[in-house]
Amino acid sequence: MKQVIQALSTKLSNDQISTNDTVKELHSKDETYHQTSLPDIVVFPKSTEDVSYIMEVAQKFQTPVTPFGVGTSLEGHVIPYQNGITIDFSLMNQILEIKESDLLVKVQPGVTREQLNKELKKYGLFFTVDPGANATLGGMAATNASGTTTVKYGVMRDLVRDMEVVLADGNVIHTGNLAAKSSSGYHLNGLFIGSEGTLGCFTELTLQVYGIPEHIVAARATFPTLTNAIEAVTSILHAGIPIARVEFVDEASVKQINKFSESDYPVKPTLFLEFHGNASGLQEDLAFSKEIMQDHGCDYFNSETDNAARNHLWDARHNLAYAYIHDYVGKKMMLTDVAVPISELANSVTYAGEELEKLNIPGGILGHVGDGNFHSLIMIDMENEEEVKKAKQFNEKVVRYALERGGTCTGEHGVGVGKKPYQREEHGAALDVMTNIKKALDPNNILNPDKIVDIDNGGNL
Amino acid sequence: MKQVIQALSTKLSNDQISTNDTVKELHSKDETYHQTSLPDIVVFPKSTEDVSYIMEVAQKFQTPVTPFGVGTSLEGHVIPYQNGITIDFSLMNQILEIKESDLLVKVQPGVTREQLNKELKKYGLFFTVDPGANATLGGMAATNASGTTTVKYGVMRDLVRDMEVVLADGNVIHTGNLAAKSSSGYHLNGLFIGSEGTLGCFTELTLQVYGIPEHIVAARATFPTLTNAIEAVTSILHAGIPIARVEFVDEASVKQINKFSESDYPVKPTLFLEFHGNASGLQEDLAFSKEIMQDHGCDYFNSETDNAARNHLWDARHNLAYAYIHDYVGKKMMLTDVAVPISELANSVTYAGEELEKLNIPGGILGHVGDGNFHSLIMIDMENEEEVKKAKQFNEKVVRYALERGGTCTGEHGVGVGKKPYQREEHGAALDVMTNIKKALDPNNILNPDKIVDIDNGGNL
Q1: Where are the membrane-spanning stretches (chains A, B) (predicted)?
Q2: Per-residue pLDDT, A305
Q3: Would the CB atoms of B183 and A414 count as touching at under 8 Å?
Q4: CA distance B116 to chain A (A)
Q5: What is the mean pLDDT of residues A91-100?
Q6: Nearest to B285 among A278, A409, A434 (CB)
């Protein structure tokens, strides 16, 4: 590693290269139960040129490289299992350009979603994708993140127009253009988004943003059972109501919300909803949705247009994972993340709920049910081997149930190492195509090795 | 070719293999000015197994393979410049499954969009993507086609959930799954869509469909100038009105429409619009849009909810290219297809209009302006060398103007051979990444060679 540091030092300043133990430790983990592993070096590039140079050095010395945003990944994406160089993008955190007239914004990868939205608000704009964590836009693109508004506005792949990417050999490309659609060449934009740092490092992103809707109504609805709530959602979707958000939270999770966010929501299977539109259309959508939910046994319904009340509701939802973490000190979080076709959603959530109950490990079910995507969140004691084993078996059961019904093992968190065991089952022979693409673009397997696909070059995971 | 035919004959019946001159001639061209070229053999597979076998034979004998839907491509995609085998998918035209509860439909690649919509109508559903031609779904996926409803519902890449694809070596993969979103593995779905037959042959597609909106209003608005009309569109987009369709047609094209479709629309720069939504929201959107258009000089506005009148309007728009072809017998059609960021749209269309006027070749401007995408359509006399040269220069000017402003050379028609000369200019070093992907997935370059990327193995174009 001495040689690598020496080579890096010829272009990077000393404060951009760290081998400090605390710094390394901070880059050895994500927010979940995955085993930690230290990088040898953490570098802090300030420009595309820096990243390009780092990749040249890494290529020369065949050093593994792991890109790092703020470490909020949930499947071990940022953990450097082969050590080497971790590239921390925190110094590349500038909002480079806000093109109001095109509803586009250009950012560096280290910008976080909250940082971006704070700035966009001044222009009456917002960026829609909102994972629970205050993740970086680079990390969100790397995992094809989504969130509560995806049911209306789409996932990262729908909203990134163009990226600047540094390839394994240090070359710099653009993956797209600034037009709203294109049929020119292979869809590199879509390929790099969700590639989890295994095909290149993102150094600039141009994102599509929206005007903040003039009229917004949020609502909460509770149901006697989890199944009732989910069936109400599928009916709303079938009715073609253009709902902007529809989130499910089970009883255990409502309890956590109340505790952490000082709310007093009724402890019942609950839907959090939101509607965007013009004043009269929105009222009609709201009334129709309410009617549908009542048909499915909704026993409490409350809507609010007040800004502060709405924000409190969504903050509470976004902080849900932290509410669990906060309440179970010393335990580690594991999340399932399956997405299934709508028609399978009620049964899938019911199945996961039943299995979770059998587990006898603290946790709950929540999710972006408008997309057929839900999470079982469990807090496990990593010292308790039996519990870890049971938790992993539960994860596997939920995944298998989804795959057997045409679903996916991960709706939004990505593969990392946690969902890698299911890649062959989900993708079949297509996994070989993915492996061939990885080999073509990163022949020496130095870009975030061990993630998504396994390359037979002596990976030591 | 004798050996190839012999090999094919061991699995395919005689009526599935043709070397008939008329059949070959039908597969030597598309709907435009591109030079024709005959295949040696045309095959008509009936199943995935047939296609897989054809690819095995092609691989064994290193025979180029060109997939063919109904030949409505606009950039020479289906023309076999290296001869070899053309795979005609017309016998694979079954609608395999309509999953109403999931708003999904599974089709074979030879199903056309009109065939599909006729069937879906029985279920109150529709497939949104509507290029002018009655193209096959396979062809539409191959070019990442879009159309008049894209501004609301998206392009093919947004609406294909999964595909079965036969690879260059005959292996069969699935590119996606049935869930509404996924972060699992590389985005093969997006990569294969728009790959124009250069990475694999599509043998099954699962498409997302929508319920036919209960309330639809169509409208026509005319403006004193082309620039007024386009500026009105950008204002509507900035206002965040969820418009379902907004099409621009210039004076020359309105004339063609009136002649071909027996309408009497005022001969002025015109917008054709459509709104989908609930009854009250839609009226508010319509009124707001009308107000915006009047601010931009709209001098005639007419809306209709009547089904027949609406259908006539959109049929007229869809038949516009044929209206030109019909009126200029013996001439060949050339289309520009740029898309630009919204802020550049008015200037781009104005520029194209001015250049078109200088040309003195019959043609007009039309387009899906809600996506920043427009076409200059010109009818050229291929015997007139000077005219052909001028037309090509015009195409180049319009493309360059768009590329210099962050746009794309093709918004929806694809690259084929016609937009290949602009690939380096548009994609820069990213074109090398595309070439590497092509080499990794089709190492012998037998899949639709000469399209999108050039591979140095003696292509003879």
Answers
A1: none
A2: 87
A3: yes
A4: 20
A5: 97
A6: A278
Cβ–Cβ under 8 Å, residues B449 and B460: no
**CATH 3.30.43.10-classified regions of chain B:** 2-90
Residue A13 CB burial class (10 angstroms; 0-12, 13-18, ≥19): exposed
Alpha helix positions (H), B202-250: 226-238
Average pLDDT (A219-229) is 96
Q: Would you say B407 and A179 are in contact if contact means Cβ atoms under 8 Å apart?
A: yes
State which fold the A2-90 domain adopts: 3.30.43
Q: Which fold has domain B328-416?
A: Alpha-Beta Plaits (3.30.70)
Residue in this structure with the two tokens 């619009």, named with its chain if needed: B273
Q: Which of A150, A186, A199, A243 is the mutation pick for testing B, counting most B CBs within 10 A?
A: A186
Other C-beta atoms closer than 10 Å to the C-beta of A135 total: 24
For residue B460, pLDDT beyond 80: no
Across the interface, of B288, B402, B412, the residue whose CB is closest to A183 is B412
Nearest Cα to Cα of residue A280 among B281, B214, B290:
B281
User: For A452, which DSSP code?
Assistant: S
Beta-sheet strand order (sheet of A332-335): A300-304, A215-222, A270-277, A245-249, A363-368, A373-380, A332-335
Please determine, looking at this structure, whether the domain spanning A328-414 carries the CATH number 3.30.70.2740: yes
- pLDDT greater than 70 at residue A53: yes
List, edge to edge, every strand of the sheet that includes A95-99.
Answer: A95-99, A104-107, A201-208, A160-166, A172-174
The CA radius of gyration of chain A, in Å to the nearest whole number, is 22
Task: Give the closest residue to B192 by CA, choosing from B238, B147, B138.
Answer: B138
pLDDT for A461 = 35
Return the CATH class of domain A91-211: alpha beta
Can you read off the two tokens belonging to residue B455? 């591979």
CATH code matching the domain that covers A215-321, chosen among 2.40.110.10, 3.40.50.360, 3.40.50.150, 3.30.70.2190: 3.30.70.2190
The confidence band for B461, taking pLDDT boundaries of 50, 70 and 90, is: very low
Cβ–Cβ of B180/A240 closer than 8 Å?
no
For residue B263, give how far its alpha carbon lies from the nearest alpha carbon of chain A (Å).
Answer: 31
In this structure, are strands A41-43 and A85-88 parallel, antiparallel, or unpaired?
Answer: parallel
Phi-psi region of B266 (alpha: psi -120 to 50; beta: other; left: phi over 0): beta
Check: CB of residue A376 under 8 Å from CB of residue A390: no
C-alpha to C-alpha distance for B87 and B156, rounded to whole angstroms: 22
- What tokens does A428 get? 């079949």
Pick among B183, B345, B400 to test the A interface (most A CBs inside 10 A): B183
- The CB-side HSE value for A317 (13 A sphere, CA atoms) comes to 27
At A86, list the tokens. 């971790």
Tell me what the pLDDT averaged over chain B comes to.
96
CATH 3.30.70.2740 positions along chain B are 328-416
User: Class of the B95-211 domain?
Assistant: alpha beta
Q: How far apart are CA A62 and CA A4, in angstroms?
A: 10
CATH 3.30.70.2190 residue spans of chain A: 215-321
User: Using 50, 70 and 90 to split pLDDT, how confident is the model at B457?
Assistant: low
Chain B CB contacts of A281 under 8 Å are 277-278, 280-282, 284-285
Q: Where in chain B is the domain with CATH 3.30.465.10?
A: 95-211
Angle at B31 between CA B78 and CA B372, to 5 degrees: 95
| Residue B459 pLDDT greater than 90, yes or no | no
What confidence tier does B304 reach under pLDDT thresholds 50, 70, 90? confident
Chain B residues with CB under 8 Å of A179 CB are 338-341, 371-373, 402, 406-408, 411
For residue A436, list chain B residues with Cβ-Cβ distance below 8 A: 440-441
pLDDT grade for B456, boundaries at 50, 70 and 90: confident
The shortest C-alpha distance from B343 to chain A (Å) reads: 6
